[in-house]
Amino acid sequence: MSGEKNLFNFTLPPPPPASNSDSSAYSIVAIVPTLIIFCVIIYAFTKMLTRASVATVPPTINVVQVWTMDAPTMERFLQDLAKERPVRFTAQQLCSFTNNYSKVLGSGGFGIVYKGQLPNGVKIAVKVLKRSLIDKRAEGQFMAEVSTIGRTYHINLVRLYGFSYDPFMSALIYEYMENGSLDKYLFGDDTQGIDWNKLPEIAIGTARVGRRRNAKVGSTDSLDWFPKHVWDKYEKGELAKMTLTCGIEEKDSERAQRMALVALWCVQDSPEARPPMSVVVKMLEGGVEIMAPPKPFHYLFSVGVNVLNAPTCNSSDYSIGYGTNSYWYKEQTTTIMAKYEIQIASSS
Ligand SMILES: Nc1ncnc2c1ncn2[C@@H]1O[C@H](COP(=O)(O)OP(=O)(O)OP(=O)(O)O)[C@@H](O)[C@H]1O
């Protein structure tokens, strides 16, 4: 006889012969698997419900957790962002920051620089621009400085914290440089100066900041100087000797000569003849052969010469070629380049 179907459609074993003592045993035997299955189903059901409830937990819990974790970070980020914009200060504030302009740090072409301190203790250098310079041209420069340096953060650039501009006074507020100006080390009498190994680093770092040709050669009184001496030595083929007499070790002489050649390119009379900073970086870093620079400082040698005339050069491997890439340096042909050239040639 086939077993009966129960609620869950499982086949139950056929009922044993009727006997009082065995009937309870039978019902226990029959009920145990049913109970186990029931429990399993209940367990599975509960599990499903738990999962569903986890999945449908309102996202607010997560959001709150993320927010409480990230809020300080975000707050710090926003504060830093706000701090990095050049701030506009009033003349009264500057007067207070500089303790009534009591400490002069130095002066340059644009005005006197004073030492000061922000209320949060950060030291500053306040450059008060000369009144005579506040004409249309100087205004343009002032705005350019605020909008370029004010938004540029570079390890080789002094930070511009802020500015002040009103009908009576214009000033630029810079980060205070504990060690003063670089030129003090480059041109000062202090022979300790900067370690030779640091100089190429500074030169490359500074060139990386620049995005245009160095436009000013300087005044003639400041041209009676080392660059001309370098040119004289270069012309006589004594550059290597000169580096040694300058105290540069022989192992560094080649690098120093390379820097000297780049410098001679950078002081060309005509701004058009000077390489852009991207090229300067390339030349300083090595890997390209620097072309022989033309003679600079024409106006020092012969007054009245049109300095914008294309310079002449005696060197055989130098040919002036505006618009060509190999004007300042010669690309060294690598195996890959050579292969590439062959491919071009064969595909044409
Ligand atoms: N941020 C600074 N921190 C410390 N000292 C500074 C700072 N800026 C300028 N100075 C000091 O003030 C002097 C004059 O600086 P300033 O920039 O006016 O002149 P400069 O370097 O000759 O350039 P410029 O061509 O703009 O006139 C520097 O030589 C230096 O001693």
Task: Give the overall average pLDDT.
Answer: 66
| Structural class based on helices, strands and sheet pairing | alpha+beta
The hetero compounds bound to this protein are: adenosine-5'-triphosphate
Query: Measured on Cα atoms, how large is the radius of gyration?
Result: 40 Å
Share of β-strand residues: 5-15%
Q: Describe the strand arrangement of the main beta sheet, using strand numbers.
A: 1-5-6-4-3-2
What is the global morphology?
flat
Précis, in short:
With 348 residues, the chain is of the alpha+beta class.
Question: How does this model look, in words?
Answer:
- The chain is α+β, with helices and mostly antiparallel strands and 348 residues long.
- Helices cover 45% and strands 11% of the residues.
- It contains 12 helices and 8 strands.
- The chain has helices at residues 20-55, 60-83, 91-97, 136-148, 182-187, 198-209, 226-235, 239-245, 250-266, 277-285, 298-301, 335-347, and strands at residues 87-88, 104-108, 111-117, 123-129, 160-165, 170-175, 288-290, 329-331.
- The strands form 2 sheets. The chain has a 6-stranded mixed sheet with strand order 1-5-6-4-3-2, with helices on one face. Strands 7-8 form a two-stranded antiparallel sheet.
- Helix 6 (198-209) runs antiparallel to helix 10.
- The chain starts with 19 loop residues before the first helix and ends with a helix.
- 16% of the residues are buried.
- Adenosine-5'-triphosphate binds at residues 105-110, 113, 125, 127, 158, 174-177, 180-181.
